[in-house]
Amino acid sequence: MINRQALLSDLQSLLKKLEADLLDRSKSSDVPEVGETLREEYARAKKAERTALNYETWRSDAITQTAAAWVLSCVFVRFLEDNALIDPPKIAGPGKRLQQARDEHTLFFQDPERAKLTDREYLLAVFDQLAELPGTRDVFGDHNPLRQLPNWLGPDAVGELLKFFQKIDANSGELIHDFTDPNWNTRFLGDLYQDLSEAARKKYALLQTPDFVEEFILDRTLEPALDEFGLDAKPEGFKMIDPACGSGHFLLGAFTRILARWQKEEPGTKVRELVGRALRSVHGVDVNPFAIAIARFRLLLAAMQAEGITRLANAPGYEFRLATGDSLYHSRQRQKTLLDDGEEIREDAHYFASEDAADLRKILRPGSYHCVVANPPYITPKDRAANQAYRKLYPETCHRQYSLAVPFMELLFRLAVNGSNAGYVGQITSNSFMKREFGKKLIESFFPKVDLTHVIDTSGAYIPGHGTPTVILLGRNRRPISDSIRTVMGIRGEPSTPEDPALGQVWSAIVGQIDLSGSESEFVSVGDTERPLFHMHPWSIGGGGASELKDQLDNEFRSRLSDCVQSIGFYQDTHADEAFVHPIGFSARQGVATGFKRQIRGDNVRDWTSKSEEEILFPYDDNLNQWPKIPVENRWDWLIRLKTGLWSRSTFGGGTYKQSGRPWYDYHQFPKDRARTPLTITYGEVATHNHFVLDRGGKVFNRTAPVIKLPEDATEEDHLALLGLLNSSIACFWMKQVAHNKGDSTDNKGARTTGDVAFNTYAFNSSLLKGLPLPDGRITRFSILIDELSQKLATNFRPSAILASNVCDEASLKSSRNDYQASYKQMISHQEELDWQCYKLYGLINEERFTLSAPPINLGERAFEIVLARKVARGEAQTNWFERHGSNPITELPEHWPDDYKLLVEKRIELIENDKNIGLIERPEYKRRWNTETWESQLDRALRSWLLDRLESYFDLDGRMNDEGKTTAKFDVELVSIARLADVARQDNEFMEVGQVFRDDSAFDVQRLVEELVQGENVPLLPVLRYKPPGLRKRAEWENTWQLQRLEDKLRAGEEVSLGDCDLTEEQRQQIAQWQTETPQPARADDRNLDAILAIPVPPKYKSSDFISSGGARYWALRGKLDVPKERWISFPHCDGPDGTLMLAWAGYNHLQQAQAISAYFVDVQERHGGRDDPRLVPLLAGIVELLPWLKQWHHDVDATYGQRMDEVFEGFVTEEAKGLGMTVDEVRDWVPPKKATKRSGTKNA
């Protein structure tokens, strides 16, 4: 039987091996046709604007698809073999069939004409034989992606593939992977579709539709469509389609239902005829080739099973109406757009080699289908070319940063039959369009034109694989015919993981109530909502009275937030934070601190306070004028390396920064008016609750921390009055009705788990926030009190503030901790009074229920928490609110409270229990969590940071790392061992004092502490010591880009160039020579013809898996997607100091200083510590080789100190020393670390 999980896991590992082989052969001169074919197809796609990816990224997908094609083809064969659908077996089989397969393999090569062939030709011959059978012609024939380049995968890799399926379990003696299944259940193929390749899963957003969701949607689309149109619908019979069919769940379900209808209607007709009719009714398209391969194979088996065929040879040539291709791109909408532009329909439009051009033209005809269903991808299109194409093809719906759910929504309706007898449409999709800005055009321009019949909130349902909040939409492709839409509104999410998701409480409520308008349960309420409400963005479909209360607030208070502010929105957006944003201390280390500002992220705006943990390059002067250029200096090298990638950022016009003439270091957007005045209200855009803070100037705000700017004459008190309203529970309630609910988390089955709704995360979009209704009154006193306390916390009581004042004794820390906790209790109390004052201002209560003399209170003591605790005690509610916040549930009011405050809280409790609106808001989901980091955790982080700063200060040779600008260096420019560094720390009294508190040990091991601190803050100089093989391949691409950047700079400057150093074609060399001849020097700096000639590729971004992570290494965390050096130290593994500990150099050294430090240690090892055969010499010399290109770039001019060109000095040093080691420079450059000796268990002698 099939072990689905084991098969998937093993095939994932196998796929990676095949991908590695395909990558190597795509660059190999042994099979030049492979690389040439790939390059040609890429060039065609690039010219046709089907892709904007760089070649390497585009090729990676082709590699994955080819590897998957080989794997799946073998899986298909193995399934056929083990279920006796074909004979004899050719790959493997259980029992004696394995030997039969091996015999067939031997027999194949006994033919003299095949003697020199390989396992690749053997498997291709197996596939050829199956392609000749009518039933599997499409599965193994020309539709199979491996047919495009059958010799791409190498013979040895195919041999590994063959061996994989023949592996025997050592314990049982049976095949490890047995595909025998008497029921022919192909669900395991759905698992492979979704998870075989992580890269494919992310690119195509692969996701299976659970059976119970598929059945629900087909029940309400396919079944009524069959009832209305009939099986013989004109003109070509009944037709259904899934234009994003994946592995075919909807198609299989539809085939079974349609066949059952035919059998009921024509019981006397031969099954084969009815199966053929049912298959001809089912249509599917998917952009992912191996998805279509799986869908085709599953439909084949379903058809054979329906006919009772048990031998593949007896299966007819079924007509599968499936096609690989981009349904969004190739739909008739594309041709319609061309016609609208005055062009003719072109049947020779660009198609990738994997796309089925003829089939796509037949299938994707608008207005052709009686039933259209899908579970489309929810991701945003990452390929810039595809993004722009969809935006052009679907202008009525694609808006801003749209997700693919939007154009697919339009496509689904457009494919359906239109008019009075309109086709039925159903889909499960992300609900993000409902409240995010990109959904505005879809809702307000498109939905009024179609008959949306059902909006079903499934965000609270437990749906495996669906970590994104979802909604099911049903409708028909016609003008609306009723004034209302049946709406299933969510109240509460699934309280726990159900044993059977199909029987989950939320899903069961949806199924049981959808046809009962006016019904309400614990989980959903159902009603018929006025249609015009669904033609306005955003949607608010909260159940249990939430929508009604939101409408009440909107209608009774006409003043809006937008009426009293100057602007709301992002402060800036770089579109490249990996390049612009870095940890605090980075800029000082690089020597460019004057160009940076502290930045606030939304994650760090919480509970009336904000903190900055990073800094951002701010290329603007004090008047907000952009810098004219980035200084061409060594200290800016880290940024200049990123120039090509930054220049390739897209502009709103569809081109790139470079094409548009924008500076490569420019922010993507920077509304400067929002930066001219110091007072700013900012907030966390993505959070569980509303968090607003008043900032008093000097910072930059990340796009995740939008800003609210009041008129220039607004006072600080005006800001604080508004701040109080924004931070209130009633504001939180309103915001959650219009904001996108991102959910809480996902479980190990990929299902969205809501549990306690208080912990759902929302995207509080600034555009939606503008509509917040405002009362006439102001909230000032409590806002001022809480703001004052929050400032005290930040400046006086936080551990980082205490350490900054050089205080680290136990008594001071304890006192600060107590002050910190007391302040928080008082803030909690003030916030509670503020919330209840707001209820009076908004007219929800008639009498004042707040006081100016409330005592400090703990978490768990607020009125709503007491009500909740009582419900839990009575068994009426389940919650982990108290547990997650470390608070104690209480059911009685604390005895120490003043009597008047007790009476006030009792009245509040009475209102919560008896007033529906107050009871709706006074819930955990709308009340401030005060879920702050513990003081102890803050102290630990602050101590660690202080200790690291102190260690780094020992290298600060020019005072750049401190405000006074005084050098604190204890070392010269040199490599320093961990042991030496610890010796210096041991003599530092302040380091020892802080270290003692950090370790909570007066006799702590100093060297061990230093080792631990440095371990997470160093990165090796040599790429081979920080990257895995995929990362090294990406590094090579980056180096090529840097070399071309240097060439471009020299050509534009009119300097002498050596074209031999660059990977250029002969045509490029000729074009460069012509450009040099024809372009006068004054015009060279801005001439764009050179851009086209060089075509400098944008190097691929790194992934965490590209970096070595063993031994506690944090290289990925310190370098990131663009490999920006954020570490404090450069390390030299395999080059330990005389004391046997790791050698370090300060990351603040420039390339020349690094080379000097390395060369000095090289000579020291050679002459004093190891001799000329010391193994440390080669990796040290390799380090200098690594620095040579940068020395040539930044240190070619004659050095004022040494009177020489230092790049030439070190180039000569490397050449001479390599010769002394008996090696060439290339051999030194290619040094790899010695493999660790494998431990072998030995046998003791008797």
Give me some keywords for this one.
Rossmann fold, 51 helices, 4-stranded antiparallel sheet, 9% strand, alpha/beta, 1246 residues, 9-stranded mixed sheet, disordered C terminus, methyltransferase, single chain, EC 2.1.1.72, 6 domains, 28 strands
Which fold name corresponds to the CATH topology of the largest domain? Answer: Rossmann fold
- CATH superfamily grouping of the largest domain: Vaccinia Virus protein VP39
Through-space gap between termini: 46 Å
User: Number of folding domains?
Assistant: 6
Structural class: alpha/beta
The geometry reads as globular
Strand order within the widest sheet?
A: 3-2-1-4-5-7-6-8-9
- What CATH architecture of the largest domain do you see? 3-Layer(aba) Sandwich
Low-confidence stretches: 333-346, 1239-1246
Radius of gyration from the alpha-carbon trace, in angstroms: 34 Å
| CATH C-level class of the largest domain | Alpha Beta
Catalytic activity: a 2'-deoxyadenosine in DNA + S-adenosyl-L-methionine = an N(6)-methyl-2'-deoxyadenosine in DNA + S-adenosyl-L-homocysteine + H(+)
Protein name: site-specific DNA-methyltransferase (adenine-specific)
Enzyme class: transferase
EC number: 2.1.1.72
